[in-house]
Amino acid sequence: MSGVTIVVLLIIGLPVAVGLVIVLLYNKLVSLKNQVEAAWSQIDVQLRRRSDLIPNLVEVVKHYLSYEQETLTKVIEARNHAVAAREQGRAATIAAESALTAAMGKFFALAEAYPELQSNQNVASLQEELATTENKIAFARQHYNDSTMSLNTAVETFPSNIIATRFNFPKAVYFEVPEEARQPVKVDLR
User: Fold this and answer.
1) Model-level pTM greater than 0.90?
2) CB neighbours of residue 69 within 10 Å
């Protein structure tokens, strides 16, 4: 090969190689963004299911917990705030749903103190459905956070960060459970 041929190959080959890298990195970012969106959709399905179950549970238990209206009110307010937060974006939804999780934890801890409530089949059935839904939310949240980590890593690392910046690929928001929702709930029934 002559020197001219090598120069011509470099002039043609280098832009083609750079263009190919750009296309591959862009497609990777799109794929990761779509994984995050799909994972969020799974969480959203379970959050909606939980939002639908809570009013039924509160309705069934409210005559048993007549002295605990403040707790029931807080649960319903947290549920309503979580439903309304869906219109305000993912970060607002995550914050509101985390507050609802904390309110439900207090509710379940309180409900354990009422034996007649625990023996009610409707309450037991609704609690089981909510517990199953909470487990599904936890698994979906883990998958979402794993997908978020993959996207955020690609958005922050070189050279994909250049493509992410150029084509406006934002970092995704993690779905974290606040510290107060992780702590065991203490109930004092004096």
Assistant:
1) no
2) 10
pLDDT at 27 over 90: yes
- Report the C-alpha gap between 126 and 168 in whole angstroms: 44
DSSP string covering the chain: --HHHHHHHHHHHHHHHHHHHHHHHHHHHHHHHHHHHHHHHHHHHHHHHHHHHHHHHHHHHTTTTGGGHHHHHHHHHHHHHHHHHGGG-HHHHHHHHHHHHHHHHHHHHHHTT-HHHHT-HHHHHHHHHHHHHHHHHHHHHHHHHHHHHHHHHHHHSTTHHHHHHHTT-PPPPP-PPPHHHHSPPP----
What average pLDDT does range 91-108 have in this prediction? 90
Owner of token pair 């379970």: 46
Q: What is the pLDDT of residues 8-26, one digit of tens each?
A: 777 888 899 999 999 999 9
Ordered structural domains, the chain, with CATH:
3-182 (1.20.1440.20)
